[in-house]
Amino acid sequence: MPLYPEQGIILRTMRLGEADRIVTLMTQGSGKVRAVAKGVRKTKSRFGGRLEPFTHVDLLLYRGRELDIVTQCEIISSFRSVREDYSRFAAGEAILEATDRVSEEREKNVRQFMLLLGALRALAGGEDPAIVVDAYLLRSASLAGFRPHLRACASCGRPGPHDRFSIASGGLVCETCRNASAVRVAESTVPYLAHLLEEEWTTSVGDDARREASGLVRAYVEYHFDRPLRAWAHVPR
Ligand SMILES: [Zn+2]
Known about the structure:
- The chain has six helices and eight strands.
- By secondary structure, the protein is of the alpha+beta class.
- Strands 1-2-3-5-4 form a five-stranded mixed β-barrel. A three-stranded antiparallel β-sheet has the order 7-6-8, with no helix packed on it.
- It is elongated, with a radius of gyration of 20 Å.
- The N and C termini lie far apart (47 Å).
- Zinc ion (ZN) is lined by residues 153, 155-156, 158, 173-174, 176-177.
């Protein structure tokens, strides 16, 4: 079936020639997809402003060998409120970038798509942008099989509580297993990390735990996906 319907969220767009654009989408059923939108930059384009980052769209795509072609596109949600506020926008950009880095092309990942949609809804709904970003990153790592160990030692399984976190080992480590790169974490940081993994999008938390967790989450995700997260640094904290 060369023509297929999908829904997706636009991660980024790139100019192609005079009038066309390549859009990268995270779709519900087909993973990350790159597709050409023809004539999108003409003033009378039939796509109008529908193919912009953050937009959740319903699409009809034509399957190509490398790039697909967008043949129809309707907006489900434009997430305008994410674009119109600097903190939300910066957080949204970090989330879109991370999605692009961690998702494989044409590899179905419904849970990643739902997580992305949930994060954008949380931002639009006024949740704390920096916390939404960190929760999104940690949950994305978890979906990809890098769920951090926050109770038992990540190396030997000895029951906690432990107070050293090793990014390379994948979570908290005990006295015996800790290596030179394991960092000491404050007592309040661990439950906060657990909350980011499991619960709602935001929570009340002290600034110290938040700052510590935030740096750990970024380093953790960059290490395990082996990809830099540039937009993360622009999120106001
Ligand atoms: Zn151990």
